[in-house]
Amino acid sequence: MSSRQSSRFCIAIVAAFTVLPRSSLADDVTEPSRAARALFEGGVKKCLYHLDLLVKFAHEDDESYAFVTTLGEPVEDAGYTVITVENLGRSAVTRTFAVTPDQSQGCSVSTTLVTPTATSCAVARDNFLSDWKFYGDLGVAAAYELESEPHSTMVLTPNEKSGCVLIKSSNQSFIGDNELKDRSTKKDRKRL
Amino acid sequence: MINILTTDSDCSLRCASGSLRRTFRMFAFLVLTVSSCSVAISQETRSTGNAAITRGVNGLIETGLERCAIRLNEIVKSELNNDDSYGFITQPSATPNKNGSTLITAEDFSDGSVVRTFHVVPDAGGGCSILAHLLFISSESCAKLRDVSFSEWKLYLDLGASTAYQQKINPSSNSSVVLTRVDKGGCAASKVFTLNYLED
Questions:
Q1: Is there a contact between A167 and B107 if contact means CB atoms under 8 Å apart?
Q2: Considering only CB atoms, which chain B residues are within 8 Å of A109?
Q3: Is the N or the C terminus of chain B less surrounded, counting Cβ atoms within 10 Å?
Q4: Which residues of B fall within a CB distance of 8 Å from A114?
Q5: Structural domain boundaries of chain B?
Q6: A86: closest CA among A179, A12, A182?
Q7: Is the pTM of this model over 0.95?
Q8: A161:B113 CB<8 A
Q9: What are phi and psi of A2, to 5 degrees?
């Protein structure tokens, strides 16, 4: 991995593990992401607003990722999934967003982030997860938790090539739902 | 032996069939299609307490999950050969019967390991949505993994470091797999599927 790729990778790691600031959601003024638009065109109506915000937070540049949707029957209240893959040179970060209109008439989103690293799990833990506390031993893997993210878990599992794979699982519940719409202003569109 | 559950989008509405795939080196991907309709847990099983409940799902029940626990248990039982062979942690939400919960399991094999994440949510329509994310970390290359285990899958995108495939048997499949090259060799295979049940 070159130094440039390495720094990009570190930035991605830090960004991925940072608590999602609410202000970043509230202030977001752009057109819908490609992933949200694809689901909308596929017939999905519910919870796209929240998915769109999460995708944009994960991928600042909407052209920086590829995605695949796992859309089942077009049942109104059924869950759906988007997998995004962002290439980072010799490896890639894979994110899975599973969205369900839930019983509270809001939206539940489960996010799974998979990041392979070339370093050992011990080094990855020291470098990226210094604030995370050991939570449980899963045998082949170890789980960590972060006080500021009570509904997130980080699992580190080694691969046989002395590297490590980081898996972050987060649950987020949004109260209510909003219609997905183009929130960009005329000024934004002109700039784009 | 590694079980990777394969489903299609029709599964939530109709009964599905099962098939067995070839083994790959020391492990095998046993492709089981979930017969979520036909294998509904009987009332008798429900009434016998937690005898047939897996350790992982029982852990979630202890955190307060009641809705959709039986549905999740079916999936977990299909996935894991042996209820004693995995480690697990639970990740409940503050209100698991409204916003859902997550179960994470890890299992070791002679040539790799599998981390499974099951996310269950009681949906707005009174049914259950279950996401399963299965991450298999193999010492083999992604090319070998693709050729042997996912040869019938349709290539969806190729990013160099990663390739994504969707299940070929159904164009609207809700099952996808992403193979990502791991530094120093090896491959991380993320398989994701969603199941939507119309009833709890």
A1: no
A2: none
A3: N
A4: 135, 180, 188, 190
A5: 2-197
A6: A12
A7: no
A8: no
A9: -70, 165
